[in-house]
Design goal:
homodimer; four-stranded mixed β-sheet; 14 strands
């Protein structure tokens, strides 16, 4: 079933305690779509500037399931750029610079051919922009949104209005606290359900994730790894693995937002993210296959089995 | 099979964001033995002062599986006292005062009748003191020790000598980092295995625990709960549930330190600790039964099932 993602594609500069990467391919939409593409086709809606390097465009060839009909190259505009430096424990980072470029202009349009998409993921954007995308995908059956602290702080009314119209919300632990003023992640999650969504997924980085669903709670640790090179994109690939696996799972089509469906999909998200962190940019995802994901899925299942 | 624990019994003053408790029963040995006693008999070796309140002694009646033959009441000495204030998110705390009393004197002796104990847990103490206990329990088959930052900082040589003689180490996430200088918990755990133990359990509070064993890795989330009243004693009851369940499990007797044995036991520890946090002191543990633990075990298993 068709899956569509909206978000950013950009050029990142990343410094971690073990290395650095300059002007590498990044952006939420890029990470999400690469991750989702392991499971099936994914439609991408994003804009880049005229300066978007041809080599970056070629990178998509390694993820042939990504449909680029919604990738707009905007003349006279610049590609989104972002730089960050991670702290010693990799759990937090400082943003070094953000050059919005095309991301600060009018959002890209959803191609008419994509209006039949059944699964929709709105990566982090201003909530009012995310709401516009909703209207362009009227056939959607499962809509999940990401958000971040800046919108909770500066566009809370828009965000609250958006939450009434979506099935699920994905956000970080501290963002859940910020949104709800609850210092306990279960309490924060339950509070968010009162705001509209059927489920919320609280991402806790190296500590895994917590699903608070109207029909149950699920807590999953991250895949325990020593190969931590760059956490950038882990949250987006986590979401991509989750949504991609749901869209591709025949048994999930009747009620894709059910507790059982989301719970199983979270494991796929966890596994894809565990590869993302092993290298800069999409370097590790370019090297692996669905078979690698399946093998690690089984290994992980053994690690958390009771 | 007989289980023995050494550690402190004391009087605690605890302030949390939601309440406070003054002069309540506490101490590692108290928490551990109460938790372990749900599963079977547990022998306690600890000392209290002449001032130990009769009402506290009566508290043991609610945990009839705790054998008090090793509880020494030392004339002229004072009971250990400790006070702490938790921060807003309950993940960290400031120690307000520590009055060592009898804990600063000669350690209690293991009664001769306890020398046949097969399972030994050495709660946090100076590592040299922990080593003396080892010698008094020559029949031990599985020995697990706890430690903390102060001994890593001030008695590291003693701690390293101790680690060569024990099967398992339990410690907090930041203590594992401090001991190994590794900022990744898997790397820290593997490093600790090189120091001697067959397994190490890294406690992460609300984020669960990580078992690094020579034969595998297991990661478990904490039981997701909104009822967070007082985290004091969670680590000790976690260890108590773990050791108590191993000592009582017929299938674990052949190789109680095996990966399968420790992994299963960690779930029991997780469940007992999830009750401890729901009230001050041992108040919640006094209210529950083994049936409650079993029910929550099943609920938790459902939450983390893949």
């Amino acid at each position: 079933m068709p899956l569509l993602v909206t978000g950013t594609i950009g050029m990142d500069d990343v410094v971690t305690p073990t290395g650095h990467a300059q002007q590498v391919l990044g952006g939420s939409c890029m990470y999400f779509s690469a991750a989702a593409s392991f499971f099936g086709p994914v439609r991408l809606v994003a804009a880049v500037g005229e300066d978007f390097p041809p080599a970056f465009r070629d990178s998509f060839k390694q993820f042939p399931n990504v449909d680029l009909a919604g990738l707009e190259t905007r003349k006279g505009s610049k590609t989104f750029r972002w730089g960050a430096k991670y702290h010693a424990n990799m759990n937090s980072r400082d943003t070094l610079f953000t050059e919005l470029g095309v991301v600060g202009e009018a959002p890209p349009k959803v191609p008419a051919a994509y209006a039949d998409s059944k699964f929709l993921f709105l990566a982090n954007s201003p909530p009012a922009v995310q709401a516009q995308f909703l209207e362009q995908v009227p056939a959607r059956k499962l809509t999940v949104v990401d958000t971040m602290d800046i919108w909770i702080d500066t566009a809370k009314a828009d965000l609250l209005a958006l939450l009434k119209r979506v099935d699920g919300l994905v956000l970080n632990y501290d963002e859940a606290e910020l949104l709800t003023k609850k210092l306990n992640s279960v309490s924060a999650g339950r509070h968010i359900l009162d705001l509209g969504p059927r489920f919320v997924i609280v991402k806790k980085g190296e500590h895994g994730c917590l699903l608070i669903h109207r029909d149950g709670i699920c807590s999953l640790p991250a895949y325990p790894t020593e190969r931590v090179v760059d956490p950038t994109g882990c949250g987006d690939t986590f979401a991509g693995g989750m949504m991609g696996s749901i869209a591709a799972d025949p048994s999930a089509q009747k009620d894709p937002g059910s507790f059982a469906s989301i719970r199983r999909a979270l494991v796929h998200g966890t596994i894809v993210a565990s590869y993302t962190i092993e290298a800069f940019s999409l370097d590790r995802l370019k090297q692996i296959t669905l078979g690698d994901l399946t093998n690690r899925f089984d290994e992980y299942a053994g690690m958390v089995r009771i």
